[in-house]
Amino acid sequence: MFINERLTLHQNHHSIKKVLIIRFSSIGDIVLTTPVIRCIKQQTGAEVHYLTKPGFAGILEHNPYIDRLFLLSNSIQQSIKELKKENYDLVIDLHKNIRSYLISFALRKQTIRFDKLNYEKWLMVRFKKDKLPRDKHLVDRYFDELTSIGIRNDGLGLDYFITEQDDFAAKELVPDVPFQALVMGATYYTKRIPDVKCRDIITKYKYPTVLLGGKDVSDQAKQLSADFSEKVINLCGQVSLGVSAGIIKYSTRVVSGDTGLMHIAAALQKPLIVFWGNTIPGFGMYPYYGKNNRPLHINLEVKNLYCRPCSKLGFDHCPEKHFRCMMDQEIPE
Q1: DSSP string, 106-127
Q2: Nearest CA-CA partner of 293 in 160, 161, 157
Q3: Could you say which architecture CATH assigns to the domain 2-149?
Q4: Per-domain residue ranges of the chain
Q5: Cα separations (Å) of 204 from 28, 82, 87, 177, 332?
Q6: Which residues face 162 on adjacent strands?
Q7: Which residues touch 19 (CB under 8 Å, ≥6 apart)?
Q8: How far apart are CA 207 and CA 228, in angstroms?
Q9: CA–CA gap between residue 159 and residue 59 (Å, rounded)
Q10: Which CATH number is 164-327 given?
Q11: Contact 158, 32 (CB under 8 A)
């Protein structure tokens, strides 16, 4: 269910001249808002502003459909003061937490909020009762509501814009033969592909493997690089998000858990093998290619496991101490 606040049913995109979109974090969640940004801009001609946290500005600062990027201040009141000057016609709150509520309420403008299905997710995590929308992606749920103001999904999928500098840097780092990008990093341990599975993935793929991730997995990546010196290029903790996106662009396929780079790979229309650990595709945040494009992903998951999903986010360890949601998965050739 979606929530419209102070939004008249007869309003359409012709009356919208300036829009604020709010999503504070994180990488994947912000990438999933890009079809909304593009369609609002292209179908209304409105001035589109976006509010996010400073740490995620790089995902959006090169997006040509954003006219102005605001970075959330440590003082909410300071952010509100800056945003009030803009006199928006519409606020689209895609984060829906206390801070986004406070900001949109203070702006006193027509606001669209989207139900994050927290109750349905809680039921699934706590009691394994599935009341989630069937085969309904989060992006499509965004557009179900936006049609009420004349905005439709163009079917083109997600956007991620790589700078020429990052593209050049990536091209210099990758081999001149087909290769797979293996995403090792993830915010939560229970979303990371285990070391033993990474070894199987590297072994079964006949071409080189480029390792991507942050400093949190750099020691593991160094060991894999040492053990597979003829097949592995380790870039974990060594390149920026933009360069990582460039490497994904040049890859033949991407192997990932439920991560931000998974969504960037989908934005770049890359074939994906996705290992689902503590989360499930049913939460509605699986790779999104757009209805005009052919889905290129394979979901790997251990179905009917009594403890899964154990969280809508993740943990720094397996609560059941067996990590079967990852360890029981079969590695495709």
Answers
A1: HHTS-EEEE---HHHHHHHHHH
A2: 157
A3: 3-Layer(aba) Sandwich (3.40)
A4: 2-149, 164-327
A5: 28, 54, 56, 17, 8
A6: none
A7: 40, 44, 46, 47, 48, 49, 88, 89, 90, 91, 92
A8: 12
A9: 10
A10: 3.40.50.2000
A11: yes
CA gap 327, 216 in Å, rounded: 20
3-state secondary structure labels for all residues of 90-110: EEEECCCCHHHHHHHHHHCCC
What pLDDT was estimated at residue 10? 42
pLDDT 10s digits, 220-275: 999 999 999 999 999 999 999 999 999 999 999 999 999 999 999 999 999 999 99
171: part of which helix (H) or strand (E)? helix 164-173
What's the pTM? 0.95
Residue stretches of the chain with pLDDT short of 70:
1-14
Identity of the amino acid at 154: D
Beta bridge partners of 111: 5, 91
How far apart CA 11 and CA 311 sit, in angstroms, is: 39
Overall size of the chain counted in residues = 333
The pLDDT assigned to 14 comes to 66
Q: What is the mean pLDDT of the chain?
A: 95
Tokens of 210: 């480029």
The SS3 of residue 269 is coil
